[in-house]
Specification:
414 residues; mainly alpha; 0% strand
Amino acid sequence: MIGITDILFACFLGIITGILTGLIPGIHVNTVGAFIFASSTHLHVSEEFLAVFLLSLSVAHALLEFIPSALLGVPDEGTAISVLPSHRMVLEGKAGEAIRAATVGGVGGILITILLLPSLFLILPPLYDFLRPHIWLILILVSVYMIIKLSRNFEAVIWASALFLFSGAMGWLMFQTPISPGLGLMTLFTGFFGLSTLLYSLNSESDIPEQSRVQFTEFNMNTLRSVSAGGLASVLLGFLPGFGPAQGGMIAASLTGSGGEDAPEDFIMAISGLNTSDALFSLLTLYLIGNPRSGIAVYISEIVQDVTMAHLMLFISASLLAVSAAAVASIKLGDHLACGLSGINYRGVSACVMFFMVASIFFFAIMEGASLLFIAVALLTSTAFGIIPHCAGISKSHLMGVLVIPAVVIYRGI
């Protein structure tokens, strides 16, 4: 095991790297992790040093990536369904509140996960073996519950069901192509949650309003409920190996009782809590059931061949340090960037962001040698579907069928 100085240095480097990658729109933490893992044989550091670096990077990235998704509307799998509520708060001059809600949720999600750890040692392994054959059925039941829960009337249920099924069909079709899953999901998420949100919000005020200055966040029972929802949703992902951050976001949304329309702060807290705590819990499941549930956890499992209790304590300590430092950075940088956007022409900013999104997709498509025509059609179609929830007045959470239905097909063995 490495010394305390090396641990702190690795954690510091991971936090700085995670902050930078989290603030850059479109950069996925797994991309950075893959680069570090590929270079690990040429780095003369211990395996624990690399593991702490990757974990700290993952936690800081998960907390900071909320800022571009809120201020610019750039989605990622973990933040996609929070884009609309947070973006709406920015247009209402409440960017500071949205950023603080995400920060509180992220810190609280990590704490909830750690507090639940003793009981998880007893419950998770046997439940994992029992539930695995029934994942497809659980996915369907949770999805049906979400459609009913987040719909105001029968017409909304019809719209939600149609969006869920059509987005799922698009996801399944994308996974059948030779296009890499990363590029395919990037294209669909950009259309469903990024371009569509920005296009629709062009009808808003021409200038980004001045953002109100918030000195503190009010803590009440809704705060506790939202933070707990994010932490519990992350834990449930450990029981359900077919679930990812997207499906976990649906569970968190259900536990908060909204899709972000009525209480956006509570919704953002829950999603941020899930997104951040999942960075740690993915490693805990590696120790508890031998199942790394994220790209970063896979890389760490390859670097640290035998994860022990000592490693587990190291990971928990590193995550606490990382989320604490990232929380301070999130509030300071978020406030600075939000104030910098005040008064700027919104349509101009939106046009630049949309150009960046589309250019990024086609850049990666060219690098991969993918069909540009197919990518263009997929992007246009997903954008069209992404506008429907705005017009029909329903939650965009239902577009998560893009991942749920392919998972059902896989686990059912269809």
